[in-house]
Each structure stands twice: as structure tokens, then as C-alpha cells.
Amino acid sequence: MDPYLLRQLWSVIEKAQSHTILSLDDSGLVNWLLEQLAHTAAYDPCQTSILSDYIRSKTTLIRDIVQN
User: Fold this and answer.
1) 47 by DSSP, 3-state: which?
2) Three-state DSSP class for 60?
């Protein structure tokens, strides 16, 4: 996975309003983040599956970060 895309993902998470992320279930969170990343120049649709798996593996961490 492209390191720039990973930076973009975590940037989206940091900028997101906590209630948005916390209100979504895991599937909704993955889809919402993918939609947000689709608007960036770093997004490559060929990496959607890999990125989706990565986000799924980090949902607990994402929620922990947003809550703090």
C-alpha cells in the first residue's frame, strides 16, 4: 500500500468529527473512509480491497483515537 495514501487516511481520521466516526458501525466506517479518500489524489481504486482490509483491521484503534 502506498505510504502517501496511508498518511491521507490518517489525516482524514484526524480531521473527522468524532461523532461521525463513533456513530458508524464497522462496515459504515470503512465505507465512509473510502468515500472520503476517493476525493484525494492519492486514491487508487485498484487498492480499494487492500485499503478496506487495512481499515477493518484498525477500526478499534480508529475509535480509540477519536474518543481521546
Assistant:
1) helix
2) helix
Taking each helix axis from N to C end, the angle separating 26-37 and 59-67, rounded to the nearest 10 degrees, works out to 80
Confidence (pLDDT) at 52: 96
CB atoms within 10 A of CB 5: 18
Q: Distances from the Cα of 62 to the Cαs of 27, 34, 66, in angstroms? A: 13, 14, 6
Nearest to 20 by CA among 55, 68, 66: 66
pLDDT for residue 36: 93
Kindly state the cell numbers that stand for 65: 483515537
Helices marked H in 1-68: 3-15, 18-22, 26-37, 48-57, 59-67
CA distance 11 to 56: 17
